[in-house]
Amino acid sequence: MIGYTYAAPKTAGEALALLRKNDAQAIVSLQHIAEFKTIKMDDAGCVIGSRVTLSELKQHSASANYPALTQALASISDPHLLNHTTMEDSLNASDIELSSVTAALLAMDADVVIVGDEMEEKYAFSDFLQTDLTHDELVAFVRIVLPDESTSSYENAGFLSGSKPICGVAVARQKNADNTLRIVLGGCTDKPVRLQSVEAALAGKELNASTVDAALEKIEGEPLTLRKDLPIGEDYLRHLIKALTKKAILKL
Amino acid sequence: MKLNFHINGQLHSGDVDRHVSLVDYLRDSVGLTGTKVGCGSGVCGSCTILVDGKTTKSCRLLAMEADGSDVTTIEGLAKNGELHPLQKAFWEKNAVQNGFSTPGMIMAAAELLSRNADPTDAEIKHWLSGNLSRETGYQQVVEAVKAAAAEMRGEGKTTTEGPDNTSIGQSPKTRKTRELVTGEAKFIADMSLPGMLHAAILQSPHGHARILNVDTSAAETMPGVVRVFTAKDTEGVMPMPVIWIPPFAESHFLPHPSGIVPGSHSVFAKDRVRFVGDQLAAVVAETRAQAYAALDKIKVQYEALPLVLDVEEAVKEGAPQLHETAPNNILIETVFGDKEATEKAIADAEVVVEQRIYNQRLMHNTLEVRGVLAQHDPATNQHTIWANTQIPYPHRLLISLYVLGIPYNKMRVIVPAMGESNGCKGNLYPDTPLVLWMARELGRPVKWVDTRAGFARNTAQSRDQVQYVTIAGSKEGKISALSCRALSNVGAYPVINAPGQPLALIGRSITGAYAIPQACYDIKVVYTNKVPTAPMRGSGRAEAIFLIERAIERFAREIGKDSAEVRRMNMVPKDQFPYENGLGWTYDSGDYETALNLALEKAGYDDLATQKAEASERNKLLGLGIGSYVAVAGVGNSAKMGGEGLMSGTWGSSYLHVAPSGEVAITTGAQPHGQSQDTTFAQIAAQELQIPMDYITIQHSDTDLPLYYGQASYGSRSLSVEGAAVQKACRMIIEKARKMAAHLFKMPLELIEYKEGKVIGTPAPEQAVMTLQQISLMLWFGWDLPEGMDPGLEATSYFDPENFNFPFGTHVAVVEIDRDTCAVDLVKYVAVDDFGTVINPEVVRGQTHGNILLGISQALSEETRYSPENGQVLTDDFDTYSIARADWIPVLELHRTETPSPSNPLGAKGAGDVSNPPVAPAVVNAICDALSDYGVKHIDMPVTPEKIWQTIYQDKAS
Ligand code: FES
């Protein structure tokens, strides 16, 4: 108890100033930074503050534009988790409890905005996952581009064990000429991963049960690192991945 | 660091260590113990509070994170003494049983209603899926949330007033519930005494190992540590006793120094650990955190020994041997029924179906773990423990006589408010006498409250039986024989009543609701390196009913007949009661077929083909399963239980005392832990004595109460045995009052009537009339008593039924299985139960919900898993051991028929755990029905989507 200081700055600037001191005995709460707690919508899309809770996001009208996100949020039933998880928490790709949201963000190609000493930098979420923040940098916002139409979805296997989403698939149609899909698997992998071979196999194809089945054959070639601590066996898990991917795609 | 925040509207400031969780801070530093701790890992929801109005699991938040916020706990919900609508509604809708999960549920629901004024059932269940309720179920909770919502919308009114009519068959409000909905009730973890120390107990990391050395030196120097105890300190403490020794079977128990009963494990393992819950040392420190911190510093050197976890392996030649007294690890071996005649009937039968069934190992996994607070007064040599046990009187007897060797009259056991038990709190565990012994050694009160992980290792588990079942009969469907060869996994040591479940409770029950001419049960009870097993809700009857209900289903399919029809053909007909089932039970009364028909009708059985076709269009496989049952209850004739081997009486007892004020106090031998005997027993007494229920107090939970001995609550016995004793005591009181009145009125006894709480001389009813209070006053004065009559108006009654009672019924489950993911969705559930005369239908409804919930959970999810490498329990939290959540459960449709039991004057049959046995077979039968097109015959529980997938796809592929 001795020697710790606690501060709850109200602005990003104040927070960064405190963080720059790099004092191991200082506890800096980022809960009260107003600018990180807002959700803004414009024609281009949505900017979600890093301190926005999943519960606030779920209740905000903006989330309705992103079915994968809405469905991912709906799959989390525990209100504690929704109330106490921030956008930034859900960028932590190794947290299985939040893998639904993480997978949805990755499928929707979200960007992560970092602020630091007089700088602001934007990373694609997939790049952000490879980036280590320094002690005086903060995640400020997550940006998601507004899709033209409702073209994303999320499916997961509930009722398997405990409270964790052990296998979920998010799919989003990209805003490009081919309308290619981004397909992301989460929960059962160390971090959410794109099923790029399946994406490639479906490029330019009409989406129906047989094209999807055929494309899913390609999963066998994906170098998936499946978690070892899951309560189900690998054979069934691989089946489930296919079954859920198919459901998610055909739901589009 | 410094904290400032509002708690229940009051500004609070304090100092807190940065590692302290909010729940610990609220409970230990602020003294708000209404918020409970069930898991400490964010899964169970018992610790739910509101932080800035938001549902928060306070075990998952650090206290310092609450700085500056507005915290509301259950204590802050009632305003100006007026309960919150949710608190009232939970009470009114009987959503509260033992009450441990109630504060968390109410707090979570509070946020829901602040966001959504009119939530649907599905929304409520979804929202509450982070709040577990093991024993109460969820349906009444959902009803309560809806009722509270209606009141908050101004569309309805909940009330704390009960109905005027409290007679038998009515549902007055349950007593002692206000303190449960407000968080004021003190459970064991909420208690403290001045000068109290805290204990932590070290368990073995190995399932089987030799202990080479225990080094406590580092632990002893840790901050706050008062003493560290090991086996060398407890030489004088005797091992746990076993009090169930079947006289008819070959058995191989361990010795006990008393020479009277056999023994079991000791407070500390001496030279060898045989399961991971074996205790090695205990630290006693000033705080709980200090005790656990020091525990980590104890160094134990082990030499790992070969393990055996599986019963079939354990009996093989060359298997590791656990106890010298038990060759081949066999504790008991015996046969029920006529094996030779059964084998002959099978050999002669047209159709024979065989099935291996593994009834998996379950954990009782009560949300409240076990705990003990003990105190010794050296001046008087008085020993007192407070413990959340189902069996306070047996604790007093067994600890004083067989473990610590202290005078019975210097030992007192008190049970505080207690969470659910599911049976696991009905044993004597080594930790309990250990804590008392340590308190005496140290001269200060000592408290020990287990952890969730500790509970998974030291607290009895259940079921775990391998069964080889053979059913035989004619092509028309008449069953001629049933045999079961079984191996029961009793774990490393027998707990006090371990033999009861695998022997009589299963062995005499396997024919279920059917008249089967030849049946036998051949059983080996086997030691392994697993946690000891003991009865669990549905105990024994659950294993028996599962096997017969699966077997009859398999048999019906084999002969191509409707399984409902095969059941009808074989059920004990209603004109055959009392019916001897050939294995030792005499079924008391019943109409099994009516219950079956009613359940099928309500479930839409005639329409099944259409339902299947409709589901198929949605890519779902629909199946319907039946579970018919008869379950022995009401323990229950002491001589019969003695014949089974129980070294104890099983009569019911009560002491009734009418004070000079006219108030009635009844001490019962029952030990409530969520069953509402405070209410139902008062209803019985109010009806018998014809006085308002408010005049009557029911007492229990303290061995110093004026009762010779209480045989406790287990195996659905309370109402039909202990309740019958209450009724008998009331009748004794009336008798004495009439005699006194006859004397005072100078009239013959036959002319004295007892009516509406008064004694009336019928020839002059206006003049010769006295209330019970007036009579009790006259008896208290003792001025003018009839010849030979003692003063005072009191009675001690005993009731020992001539027979057990046999509740029965049929449950029907309808499931849908997703063809792609193989996920199982329970879409409909209908239960028809017959509990004989029901005192309080709402109370019984709540218990039935709890039974069904557990059965569904066993069928679909629960299983205790062990590491094959070291015998560790792998399922030691609520994530790895997954119990049914609110959103798994459809609306449960409950119906009752009412066939009184002739076994007791109330006509009551057991209810508390008896409706569990039909649930798991109904669900598994439904799954197998859904998969019948795939030729699936059986899938062992828990029937997970993975097992279904393996059965219908993978097995086919290979
Ligand atoms: S104690 Fe906090 S969720 Fe179980």
Describe the secondary structure blueprint for this structure:
The complex is a heterodimer of chains A (252) and B (958).
Chain A: E1 5-7, H1 12-20, E2 26-28, E3 39-42, E4 45-49, H2 54-59, H3 67-74, H4 79-84, H5 99-107, E5 111-116, E6 119-124, H6 125-128, E7 138-145, E8 152-156, E9 168-173, E10 181-186, E11 193-194, H7 196-202, H8 209-216, H9 234-250
Parallel strand pairs in A: 1-2
Antiparallel strand pairs in A: 3-4, 4-7, 5-6, 5-7, 8-9, 9-10, 10-11
Chain B: E1 2-7, E2 10-15, H1 22-29, E3 48-51, E4 54-57, E5 70-72, H2 85-92, H3 102-115, H4 121-127, H5 139-152, H6 178-182, E6 197-203, E7 209-215, H7 217-220, E8 225-230, E9 250-251, E10 272-273, E11 279-285, H8 288-295, E12 299-304, H9 311-314, E13 330-337, H10 339-348, E14 351-363, E15 371-377, E16 382-387, H11 392-403, E17 411-414, H12 431-442, E18 446-449, H13 452-458, E19 461-473, E20 479-491, H14 501-507, E21 518-527, H15 541-559, H16 563-570, E22 579-580, E23 586-587, H17 592-603, H18 608-617, E24 620-630, H19 638-644, E25 652-658, E26 664-668, H20 677-689, E27 696-699, H21 718-745, E28 752-755, E29 758-761, E30 769-771, H22 772-781, E31 793-799, E32 808-818, E33 824-834, H23 841-860, E34 892-897, H24 919-930, H25 945-957
Parallel strand pairs in B: 1-5, 6-18, 16-17, 20-21, 26-27, 33-34
Antiparallel strand pairs in B: 1-2, 3-4, 3-5, 6-11, 7-10, 7-12, 8-11, 9-13, 13-21, 14-19, 15-16, 15-18, 19-20, 22-23, 24-32, 25-26, 25-31, 28-29, 29-30, 32-33
Residues 37-40, 42-47, 57, 59 of chain B line the site of FE2/S2 (inorganic) cluster.
